[in-house]
Design brief:
This protein has 1 helix and 10 strands. The chain is mostly beta strands. Strands 1-3-4-5-6-8-9-10 form an 8-stranded antiparallel barrel. It is elongated and about 55 Å long. It starts with a helix and ends with a strand. 29% of the residues are buried.
Length: 196
């Protein structure tokens, strides 16, 4: 993990050296998270509505191109239909996306880039007989501590610093070490942010 963070810092420093301008900001918004793949071992699944919040830095390279590294706390997972009850698999990550932004018009950008996520918690919340139980499932389902993904989407930035984005994070790595669980994260995000 230290090597990955060091690599990200070195790459960001390289871009910063060639930057015309660096702006910092914050963002928050809606997640529509799901788990795709062979989810038979998890039962029937459906999208989980949750949230994300974090900090961003926009490194302007030219009038048409910028790099945007981010540090985002993201609540992901899926809803489950269990035999005895309905439940929610709650996978919370600290994500580090590095987004390339191509400005195709004034304020309007197309965005894409890789992401590494560090698992903060993995829990199952379910109701049994009117009582809600929340259990840790990281060890039971062998949930991996690191997740890799690819982001793509679009954003719009106003002159006053307010900005909006819509993005999809396509999971590239299996969420579990268990060979019987062939599943990956997928998250659609709608964000509102402000650049200071």
């Amino acid at each position: 993990m230290k090597k990955v963070l060091l690599l990200i810092a070195v790459v960001a420093a390289g871009f910063t050296a060639n930057a015309q301008e660096v702006k910092f900001g914050a963002k928050a918004g809606l997640n529509i998270a799901s788990i795709s793949g062979d989810t038979d071992d998890l039962g029937n699944t459906s999208a989980r509505t949750s949230f994300h919040v974090g900090a961003v830095a926009e490194i302007t390279i030219s009038d048409k191109f910028a790099i945007q590294p981010e540090l985002v706390y993201s609540t992901q997972g899926t809803k489950l239909e269990l035999r005895e009850a309905d439940g929610t698999m709650k996978l919370d990550y600290l994500n580090v996306p590095v987004i390339a932004k191509f400005y195709v018009a004034e304020g309007l950008s197309l965005e894409a880039g890789p992401q590494i996520g560090f698992l903060m918690s993995a829990k199952l919340k379910a109701e049994y007989g009117g009582e809600t139980e929340e259990t840790d499932i990281k060890d039971e389902l062998e949930i991996k501590s690191v997740d890799f993904g690819l982001n793509f989407g679009a954003g719009y930035k106003l002159d006053n610093g307010l900005n909006f984005s819509a993005r999809y994070n396509l999971g590239l790595s299996e969420i579990s070490k268990n060979e019987n669980i062939d599943s990956k994260n997928g998250v659609f995000q709608i964000s509102v942010g402000y650049m200071f």
